[in-house]
Write a structure and sequence with these properties.
There is one protein chain. The chain has about 525 residues and is of the alpha/beta class. It contains 15 helices and 17 strands. The protein has helices at about 5-20, 55-75, 100-105, 115-125, 155, 175-190, 215-225, 230-255, 285, 290-295, 320-325, 350-355, 355-365, 380-385, 390-395; strands at about 35-40, 80-85, 130-135, 160-165, 170, 195-200, 260, 305, 335-340, 375, 420-425, 430-435, 450-455, 470, 480, 490-495, 505-514. The strands form four sheets. An eight-stranded parallel β-barrel has the order 1-2-3-6-7-8-9-10, surrounded by five helices. α2 links the parallel β1 (about 35-40) and β2 (about 80-85). α2 packs parallel to α4 and α6 packs parallel to α8 (about 230-255). The longest helix has 23 residues, at about 230-255. The termini are far apart. The model is unreliable at about 1-15 and about 20-25 (pLDDT under 50).
Length: about 525
């Protein structure tokens, strides 16, 4: 049997599996008005941005603007930007050195100087996208080339804080000083930048490598042996302690900043725990000592974003089984599914070569009301349009705009409605203007506005995103509609949103355009 024939059979079986999984969702639901549509923009090893550490500041900015424009046009509304890949920084107000993936030699500032994170936040917000600052908490180096590290790198200042595993230096999570340091590193961003969220990935204790051992016995003897008989339970507690303290610290300084983590897709297998998922792969609980379900159950996270990079029907970890399991274990907080757009570009991945694999996953998610969206890994995969996925997002699934889903446990008070909505004709169309709302009872200032348009006599359904013609994350109190047609009568509705995207009642006006 030829290899080509085997691939054909595999693709046919995958197609049958997809039809079976999606049989109940033949009638597609309309795109939701609220949905988290994120993409990871990875900086480590220049995966997504910048394309090279040798670029000028202007070229870096230009590349990032092009990335943001591309994703905005496809309907993405959240950027997960990696700002600390290895105890280094893509931002100026940091206690750690500039990243080598930004400027070459570690510790070298951009020249001419600019602050990449500040620039990214402003550019994202101007495109009505949230910006979540993505941190790798424990990785200190990506390789064993320690001689190239900056004198200001923390591994040189506190060499006793690290163990080496797989040739990389990793923070020892069992040391109280390490946990406090990481909290302060992240708070530097919370305090100094207008980010919408703090995001962490799946790297806690290292993924297992044959023949390697974690050298943390001395730390266990000093800090854990009095309370724990099992070093593995102590390791999990070390991670739990950091996550809990981070949640408290982030929300203390800025209550509106969302905190989320993207763990490995499997918490525990059902063979390991009856509460685990019907899977048979590695698990974050036993391999990274990351009790990911506990973090969302305790309410320490505002959202959890498990990486479910497998296809429907995968033998070890089927997409549908893991997705369903997480939706049963999100504990009334947000669940965004990490989707592996990169898998479409893998040469021999027959399941993801099926152009309906990822779109079928999107449809599957939308049919579960306990799932609020997804995040794609990674930006470059969408920009390369593997399998036509980005075309599908832009032209179909994300064709209408979406606001981020509400987090009522952080803020449930909506703004008041805009006042005195007026309309006037311009050379290019109709200009709407209004007065800012009276402050809501929580005294929070308005963050932006949403504008809807209907034809006169048409049912005014503000839950239908088809009628949203503009979303803005700024306080400008006017908008010019240049898409009007002569002889039409329009009805406009303008609502205000606050930082958490709570939406006010609407101001409305009917306007003939002659």
């Amino acid at each position: 049997m030829t290899y080509r024939f085997v691939l054909m059979i595999a693709a046919w079986l995958t197609c049958l599996q997809l039809h079976a999984q999606t049989d109940t969702i033949k009638q597609l639901r309309p795109a939701p008005k609220r949905e988290f549509r994120g993409v990871w923009v990875a900086t480590v090893t220049n995966i997504d941005w910048p394309s090279s550490p040798k670029l000028s500041s202007d070229k870096q900015k230009s590349e990032l603007i092009n990335i943001f424009n591309f994703h905005q046009q496809a309907g993405i509304n959240a950027i997960m930007l990696q700002v600390r890949p290895a105890a280094d920084a893509f931002y100026a107000k940091s206690r750690e050195p500039w990243s080598k993936w930004l400027t070459g030699p570690q510790g070298t500032p951009p020249n001419p100087f600019y602050d990449p994170l500040e620039f990214a936040v402003n550019e994202a917000h101007s495109r009505n996208m949230e910006l979540h600052a993505w941190f790798n908490p424990y990785r200190a180096t990506m390789d064993a080339n320690y001689a190239s590290l900056s004198p200001q790198h923390v591994t040189r200042i506190h060499p006793d804080w690290f163990f080496i595993y797989g040739g990389r230096k990793l923070f020892n999570p069992g040391l109280p000083d390490v946990r406090e340091y990481i909290i302060q590193v992240i708070l530097d961003v919370v305090k100094n930048y207008d980010v919408d969220g703090i995001h962490m990935d799946d790297y806690f204790y290292p993924y297992p490598i044959a023949g390697q051992r974690i050298n943390d016995q001395a730390a266990f003897e000093q800090y854990g042996k009095d309370k724990f008989t099992d070093i593995r339970a102590w390791r999990r507690n070390n991670v739990d302690t950091l996550i809990h303290a981070l949640a408290d610290s982030i929300h203390k300084y800025k209550p509106h900043v969302k905190f989320g983590i993207s763990p490995f897709g499997i918490w525990k297998n059902v063979s390991q725990d009856e509460e685990g998922s019907e899977t048979s792969g590695g698990s974050s609980y036993y391999e990274q000592f990351a009790d990911s379900r506990k973090w969302i159950e305790e309410g320490w996270l505002d959202y959890i974003n498990p990486q479910i990079y497998w296809q429907f029907g995968n033998r070890a970890a089927a997409f549908e089984k893991l997705t369903d399991w997480w939706s049963d274990n999100a504990f009334n907080h947000h669940l965004y599914i990490g989707q592996g757009a990169y898998r479409i570009g893998e040469p021999r991945n027959s399941a993801f070569k099926n152009p309906d694999q990822v779109p079928a996953q999107i449809r599957y998610l939308r049919n579960n009301p306990r799932i609020q969206g997804s995040v794609y890994f990674s930006s470059a995969s969408l920009r390369r349009n593997y399998g036509g996925l980005n075309d599908s997002l832009r032209n179909h699934y994300y064709r209408t705009p979406a606001l981020p889903p509400l987090m009522l446990w952080l803020d449930s008070v909506a703004p008041n409605a805009p006042r005195q909505l007026l309309a006037g004709r311009t050379d290019r169309g109709l200009m709407l203007s209004w007065q800012i709302p009276i402050l809501a009872k929580d005294k929070e200032a308005v963050y932006g506005y949403v504008i809807y348009r209907f034809y006169q006599g048409e049912q005014a359904d503000l839950s239908n995103p088809e009628h949203i013609i503009h979303i803005q994350y700024n306080t400008a109190n006017s908008f010019e509609d240049t898409t009007v047609q002569k002889g039409k009568h329009y009805v406009y509705y303008v609502t205000a949103i606050d930082r958490m995207k709570n939406e006010s009642e609407a101001a409305t006006i009917t306007v003939p355009y002659q």
